[in-house]
Structures are given as structure tokens and as C-alpha cells.
Amino acid sequence: MDWQQLASLAIVFTAAALLLRSKIHRPKFRLARHSPCGCSGKQMTNPPPTVIYRARKGDRPTITIRPN
Predict the structure, then answer these.
(1) What is the pLDDT of residues 23-43, one digit of tens each?
(2) How far is 43 from 45, CA to CA, in rounded Å?
């Protein structure tokens, strides 16, 4: 076995070990990752505005931004 085969096997074994470790190791709980909105528990005081797109054949398309 030459050095290139040893190097490639070392890379493969390292990758396999890291993949197995990630499957076995339980990640830390992060509220930003586990909440549905991706925010870190902050309540949104102002929701994002609503964007309305309208387009009709022959007319110019309009974009309306309506605050909530």
C-alpha cells in the first residue's frame, strides 16, 4: 500500500467518523433554530407589510405595499 492509498483511506475514515459523530451527538437546543419563525423568542411588535402584485393583460403591473 503506497502513501496515496493511505492518505485516501485516512480521508475516508475521517469523513465517516465525523458523519457518525454528527448522527450520534445531539445538537444543542437553540430557540432561533427550533422556533417556527426563526426569531429568538422576541415578540414582533410590527408585523411585516403585505405586498400585493396585480397584473392584467394590456395594463401596467402594479405593486401595492399595505401596512398591517
Answers:
(1) 887 766 666 665 566 555 556
(2) 6
